[in-house]
Amino acid sequence: MSDPGPVLAVAAGLVLLAVLASKVSARLGVPALLLFLVLGMLAGSDGLGSIGFTDYQLAQSLGVVALAFILFSGGLDTAWDDIRPVLGQGVALATIGVAVTALIAGSVAAWVFGFSLTTGLLVGAIMSSTDAAAVFSVLRSHGVSLRGRLRPLLELESGSNDAMAAFLTIGLLSLLEDPSASTIDLLGLLGQQMAVGGVAGDGLARLAIVALNRLRLEYDGLYPVVTVALVVFTYGTTTLLGGSGFLAIYVAGLVMGQARFVHKASLTRFHDAIAWFAQISMFLLLGLLVFPSDLIELGPRALLVSVVLILLARPAGVFLSLPTRRLRLADKALISWVGLRGAAPIILATFPLVEDAAAAEDIFNIVFFVVLTSVLVQGTTVRLAARRLDVAAPQADTPSPPLEFDLGDDAEMDLHQLRVVDGAPAAGRRLVQINLPPGTLVVLVSRNGEHIVPQGQTTLRPDDVVLVLAPDDALDQTRQLLEIPAQA
User: Fold this and answer.
1) Which domain holds residue 169?
2) Does residue 402 lie in a domain region?
3) Residue 322: helix, strand or coil by DSSP?
4) In a 10 Å sphere around its CB, with 0-12 CB exposed, 13-18 middle and 19+ buried, how is residue 187 labelled?
5) Are 193 and 244 in contact (CB under 8 A)?
6) Main-chain phi, psi angles of 415, to 5 degrees
């Protein structure tokens, strides 16, 4: 039996280099995933590392698992109150927008590369999903946020559109294998996958919440084991039932993110770490699969497809799926530009390779080139685009609370982190003077990086971050005192 030590050392070294690269990316304003991919390519067969890796089946299997954990973490960290007002728009973007993008980009790919229309549409379907998380990392690194409801809309779209892209990819692959397959049957299958995925994700998440609150495990370290098993079980069970595993995972994370369960704060951080590890590992692994010499050969034609995707296909998908006047032209333009490609397209590009479809290697290289182009062009200019379109807003630096407060699902209060706004009723007043709702307690005040244990004579100042223990029915009134400027 060969010693796994050298392999483990190289793998760990690449992961550590990727972590260091993320620090560099924040300073340069370049999405970290671009540097992860470059590291993988440099370590690959054509790079300095000369590591040969061509196991597409393994890459696909690991990619699916990694994407599942990334989606679950994204859902777990998404606030339902933020996305509820944009739910209809997000669903439209994740379905109609994805389909329109795939149709236009795929048709152009078929023409440019001489593929059949079905093969071209397969390329378009693989490239149709987005990765807005990379955009937010760039914005955060420069202290920029987005105005209005743009951020929750983009978060909802990027978390839910992978399911549509995966369905289109698998459906078009089945059409390539069996041209006689009925398109009507595929549409029925789409409805089934979405319905089963949504119901299964919601149901399993609710069961998990009850289980976590009632198990009372002897060791705290077992709670992450439960949630990891939940992610895998949700994906596997949903696919067995004929549903979309990716959609079920995102829905499960979203439902759990809005509920109370024991060790929620630590479990959320744990899954954030798992998601980062999954993202780094996948981009390194996918970078190893690519031969840069092949990218150079396809480069000019793949660049044309990238241009069409960025400047035509994505904007068409946005404007056709969001015809409402509730969004300004500048908002739609920003959404169009934030159609950043990421992990999902490259993972989906392994599906034709595993199925040994026609032109599978070309498809993988085209998608990889398009993702690189998208990240390099859109990822590095999104901050500039947000400011030019006047949709950028300063991002408040909110410190993480140093306390955790675990409650069961039957508790009627929770710990909330609120920021004191200039002009709010509580700003400039002592705690004893503030008419806080009954049962509400200010636990901690964070000011200029320091934590203050408050007393009755403590004066709240604008931009103080206040940790408040409040009953559910008193939260809105507490927000009115701290976060809403008083009417003149």
Assistant:
1) 5-394
2) no
3) coil
4) exposed
5) yes
6) -95, 130
Same domain, 387 and 420: no
pTM of the model: 0.81
Distance of CA 380 to CAs 29, 138, 240, Å? 6, 8, 40
Total number of domains constituting the chain:
2
Whether residue 165 is found in the same domain as residue 267: yes
C-beta of residue 235 within 8 angstroms of C-beta of residue 248: yes
3-state secondary structure of 394: strand
Rg of the Cα trace of the chain?
24
Q: First CA to last CA across the chain, in angstroms? A: 77
Q: Are residues 360 and 421 in the same domain?
A: no
Same domain, 385 and 326: yes
Do 353 and 436 lie in a common domain?
no
Q: Per-residue pLDDT for the chain (488 aa), expressed as one digit of tens each?
A: 566 777 778 777 778 887 887 777 766 666 777 777 778 777 776 666 667 767 788 888 888 898 899 889 888 887 777 788 888 888 899 899 999 999 999 999 999 999 999 899 999 999 998 876 566 565 555 556 677 778 788 888 888 888 888 888 988 888 888 776 666 767 777 788 889 999 999 999 999 998 888 888 888 888 999 999 999 999 999 999 988 888 899 999 999 988 888 888 788 889 988 988 888 888 888 777 777 777 888 889 999 999 999 999 999 999 999 887 678 888 899 889 988 887 788 888 888 988 888 888 899 889 989 988 888 888 778 878 888 888 876 655 555 555 555 555 455 667 778 888 888 888 888 888 888 888 888 888 888 878 888 888 888 888 888 888 888 777 778 888 887 776 64
> 273 and 350 share a domain?
yes
Q: What is the DSSP letter of 267?
A: H
Pairing status of strand 450-452 against strand 413-419 = unpaired
Residue 273 lies in a domain: yes
- Going by C-alpha positions, the residue among 204, 201, 239, 225 that lies closest to residue 71 is 201
Residue 322 located in a structural domain: yes
Report d(CA 128, CA 339) in Å as an integer: 9
Q: Cα–Cα distances in Å, from 341 out to 348, 375, 379, 478?
A: 12, 7, 9, 40
Asked if residue 353 and residue 434 are part of one domain, the reply reads no
The CATH number of whichever domain residue 459 belongs to comes to 3.30.70.1450
Question: Is 487 domain-assigned?
Answer: no
Vertex 128 angle, CA 60 and 138, to 5° = 90
Q: What is the DSSP letter of 44?
A: B
